[in-house]
Every structure is written in structure tokens, then in C-alpha cells.
Specification:
heterodimer, A: alpha/beta, B: seven-stranded mixed sheet, three-stranded mixed sheet, 6 helices, 28% strand, globular
Chain lengths: 300, 213
């Protein structure tokens, strides 16, 4: 029986990345009210993401999308026991400062909101709170990690219910990682240049064969099968945005997606949980969205 | 067996090849536990279904979200057989959420949250507050040797009361208990599996080997 011998250290990379490690194999659900947060927690969400409007509404209503009202975030934190994440605009370090003092557990510097800075992302090393950032490819993921992101989510195309972009992004990131592992050192210097990422990070990934942070998938996941497919493609977990609360039966669909993520490699379980879920979100095909209106192209 | 990137690793435990160590793989950082156990020479099996419980000689419950593990364990019929196995002496080691699942009493749990029980303790869930209060520190734990244990606490629980059958193994400067054992059961508030700390797993494997004799 003993005592601790050294000072406690807060906000280290290990502590920030560690929370994401604990979320693995889980589903993080977008919520816009405390009541939705309650449904998400009861369904087995591993965390909730607080935002002002779900991506499908941001898309249909248009306008500038921002951080949620602090009152709303407070009410969600008060409602649930699981970790609460909240979105800040790309580059909006003051929204991030606010979210940190509100006591959320993770900040999503997200392309789903309107960017506040078209040149710079937030310097995430300045914060005790960890950040998750979106990426469409490995270079983008590595630039975010260099800026201090402690978790990466492949972007997909939020608010569509069309999983094809999510598929493309997780395949791209994992494919590029695989390619690095087969390269010799002289090739890695060039790879770092092409990825526009620091050589040290590129070399680390070439030797470990994985990102140094947890990689979730997001953007268009609407069914248990979608979620399980992302897991089989190598995601550590799944974000579900509009897919739950824009569907006919959010409670049941949310719980089904949670089960499908745990048993992602068991088609019998996925078939069982897919029965009788009612209507999935109607959705839009990404190919019908003109390029300037695609959220995934925000961030660089 | 080759050991890579090890901080403070004692000599290997001799784990008889016939013994199987399960890792509960419903949600959380079960791969990290599996990796540590494999490096220590154990045969590791991921456990998600009730029938898989019959095939193991001990179980590790990983870090993760205890309320999610609870729901999935009940939905898929794992909770009752596991509770019975623990009562029957199955060696189990739980980290963080795993410690919560092993506690007889859970404080600040969700409505209706249940664990598997076994440890005669009351655990307070998320005892330090939000993620900005998560931290890492060194703990002296003589039972594991002279070298301090580097411990990472992530939205961690603490053991608030310790019943007569359980024993504290480590505490913070303020006296709060963060590691306990009781017979074949072992629980820590922190995560040796993500720091290259092997001694807790080794200590657990020793319990498992002894129990199998």
C-alpha cells in the first residue's frame, strides 16, 4: 500500500490520445438536445457529439453553422454520464477555448461547421482538452496530428446518408499507410514531401503500419451494415451524425448500430439487428451535390 | 519471444501453453491488453459471446465505457454466466471500466447500470471530472517491485470504500485508492496496457497460473 511519488501531469499526448483509445469499438452520436443525448446514451453510445444542427439540417437550411449555445452544451453534460464532445469551427480557437472551460471532454474541429479561418487550423497543442479532426487522406490526417490532434476521423460526406465518401476516405487513409510500410528510407523522404507532412511522422507510420492516434470513420453512416462495413475496412469506431435522429426510429436504430459495431465481423448478428428498423434517413447521393457544397473539401 | 519497446518489464512469466487468457472484446482498448498478454507469452482469446467464456482460464476486462459494456453484456447473454464464473473463482483483471464492472457497488453509474461484481468495493465512476482533469503520474507499489508504476488516469474511477475481503494495492497522494485485489481478482483505475507497463498483467498471470493448478 503506497503513495504516488511525482506530480500529476495533465493534458499530455498520452492522456489526450488515451481517451480516444477507450472509445474504440464504439459509436459516437450527434445530438442537438439533452433529450437526444439521453436516447443516445440509453442506446449504448460511447460518447455524444453536441452541435447546433445535425449536418443534414445544416445542409438543407444553409447559413453559417457555429459552435452550439453553451446552455445547450451544459444541459447535455448534465444529462449524460458518457463523454461529451462538441464541435468548433475550423480555426476558431476562441470557440475551442469556450468549449474547454465548459468542461466538454473532446473538441471536434469540424468541417461540418462553417470554417472560421481558411488558412490555419487551431494550434491544438495550446489546449489541455483533446481534439479530433477530420481527414480525407493520410497527408491531411498527419497535418492535423502535427497541429496536435489526438484523434482522427475520416470525413466522409456529412448529412447525406450516403456512405460512399466515408468508404473512399477510410480506404484512402489505410491504403496510403500500407504503401508507406513498403517503402525504403529514400522513398520515405519523397513520400513526406508528397504527403506534405513531417518526415519523422511519416517514418514512424512506415515502421508501425498505423496512425499514432485512433482513427474513427464519419460522414454518411446510416445503417448497421454501413457501420460494420467501416469497421471491416479498419476503422477503430464510428461517428453517426444525422443517420440516427433523421431516421424513423432513432432509439432502435442507434442501439442496432452499436451492436453492429461490436459484432462487425458477424453477418448473422448484423442481419438480426438490421430487421424492422423502420425508415433510414432519406439521404442525398453525394454525386448530386455540386462540388462547392461538399463539406469534406473544407479543411486541407 | 521477442519483446519490443518495453519500459519496465520484469522477467517473463511461465504461462503453460494450455492456458487461455480471455480479453472481453465488447468495446474499449481490448487490443492493447491482448498485445501485452501475448508479449508475456499468453494464449489470448477475444471474448464476445457466452460460449466463449467456457474456453478460458482467466479474463481481462479492458478500459472503455462501462455502461456500454454492461448493455452489450446483458443483451448478448454474457453478463449472467460471467457473474457466475467470477463467483466460481475465475481470475479476472479489470482496468478502469473493467474495475467498475468488477465492483460490487457502482456509485454515479447510469440509471440501472450493473456490473459483474466480485470485488468487495464501492467504485465511483468518473471520479475526477471531465477529460481536462485526466492525468498521468508515478505510483510506488512495492508489491510490484522498486520501480514506480507510471499510471495514466483517463476519466478514471476511484475505489471509494474497501470491504473486508478486498485489499488496497495503491493510492494517490490524497489517499484515494486506485488499485485493489481480492483472491483471484485484480482491478486498477488506471491503464497499464497503454504505457508499456507489464507488471500488473504479469501479476495477474501468476494468479491465473496458480488458480489453474
Amino acid at each position: 500500500m503506497t503513495e504516488s511519488t511525482s506530480a500529476e501531469q495533465f493534458g499530455s499526448s498520452r492522456v489526450k490520445r488515451g481517451l480516444a483509445e477507450m472509445l474504440k469499438g464504439g459509436v459516437i452520436m450527434d445530438v442537438v438536445t439533452a433529450a437526444q443525448a439521453r436516447i443516445a446514451e440509453d442506446a449504448g453510445a460511447v460518447a455524444v457529439m453536441a452541435l447546433e444542427r445535425v449536418p443534414a439540417d445544416i445542409r438543407s437550411q444553409g447559413g453559417v453553422a457555429r459552435m452550439s449555445d453553451p446552455d445547450l452544451i451544459d444541459s447535455i453534460i448534465a444529462e449524460v454520464n458518457i463523454p461529451v464532445m462538441a464541435k468548433a469551427r475550423i480555426g476558431h480557437f476562441v470557440e475551442a477555448q469556450i468549449l474547454e472551460v465548459l468542461g466538454v471532454d473532446y473538441i471536434d474541429e469540424s468541417e461540418v461547421l462553417s470554417p472560421a479561418d481558411y488558412l490555419n487550423h487551431i494550434d491544438k497543442w495550446n489546449f489541455t482538452i483533446p481534439f479530433v479532426c477530420g481527414a480525407t487522406n493520410l497527408g491531411e490526417a498527419l497535418r492535423r496530428i502535427t497541429e496536435g490532434a489526438a484523434m482522427i476521423r475520416s470525413k466522409g460526406e456529412a448529412g447525406t446518408g450516403d456512405v460512399s465518401e466515408a468508404t473512399k476516405h477510410i480506404r484512402t487513409i489505410n491504403g496510403e499507410i500500407k504503401r508507406l510500410t513498403s517503402m525504403s528510407r529514400d522513398e520515405l523522404y519523397v513520400a513526406a514531401k508528397e504527403l506534405q507532412a513531417p518526415y519523422e511522422l511519416v517514418a514512424e507510420i512506415a515502421s508501425t503500419g498505423k496512425l499514432p492516434v485512433v482513427l474513427f470513420t464519419a460522414g454518411g453512416v446510416a445503417t448497421p451494415a454501413d457501420a460494420a462495413m467501416m469497421m471491416q475496412l479498419g476503422a477503430d469506431g464510428v461517428f453517426v451524425g444525422s443517420g440516427v435522429f433523421k431516421s424513423g426510429n432513432p432509439e432502435q436504430r442507434a442501439a442496432a448500430i452499436v451492436k453492429a459495431v461490436t459484432f462487425y465481423d458477424d453477418a448473422k448478428v448484423i442481419a438480426d439487428v438490421s430487421r424492422g428498423l423502420g425508415e433510414a434517413m432519406v439521404g442525398i447521393n453525394v454525386s448530386d451535390i455540386p462540388a462547392p457544397h461538399r463539406l469534406a473539401s473544407r479543411g486541407w | 519471444m521477442a519483446i519490443l519497446s518495453v519500459g519496465t518489464r520484469p522477467a517473463e512469466t511461465a504461462v503453460p501453453p494450455g492456458l487461455r487468457v480471455g480479453v472481453l472484446a465488447l468495446q474499449g482498448d481490448f487490443r492493447e491488453h491482448a498485445q501485452v498478454l501475448r508479449k508475456l507469452g499468453a494464449n489470448v482469446y477475444l471474448v464476445r459471446r457466452p460460449e466463449e467464456l467456457d474456453q478460458i482460464d482467466g479474463l481481462v476486462i479492458p478500459g472503455g465505457e462501462s455502461s456500454v459494456m454492461d448493455k452489450l453484456a446483458r443483451t448478448f447473454g454474457l453478463a449472467e454466466p460471467l457473474r457466475a464464473a467470477i463467483r466460481g473463482g475465475l481470475p479476472v483483471y479489470g482496468t478502469c471500466a473493467g474495475l467498475i464492472m468488477l465492483a460490487d457497488t457502482i456509485l454515479d453509474g447510469m440509471n440501472g447500470q450493473q456490473g459483474f461484481g466480485g470485488l468487495d468495493i464501492a467504485v465511483r465512476r468518473n471520479a475526477f471530472g471531465s477529460q481536462t482533469a485526466s492525468f498521468e503520474t508515478d505510483l510506488d507499489i512495492p508489491a510490484l517491485g522498486q520501480e514506480p508504476v507510471h499510471a495514466v488516469f483517463i476519466r478514471a474511477p476511484v475505489v471509494e470504500t474497501i470491504g473486508a475481503r478486498a485489499t488496497a494495492l495503491a493510492s494517490l497522494d490524497d489517499g484515494r485508492c486506485v488499485a485493489v485485489e481480492q483472491g483471484n481478482l485484480l482491478g486498477t483505475s488506471f491503464h497499464p496496457e497503454i504505457t508499456g507497463e507489464y507488471r500488473f498483467h504479469q501479476y495477474f498471470l501468476q494468479k491465473l497460473v496458480a488458480a489453474a493448478r
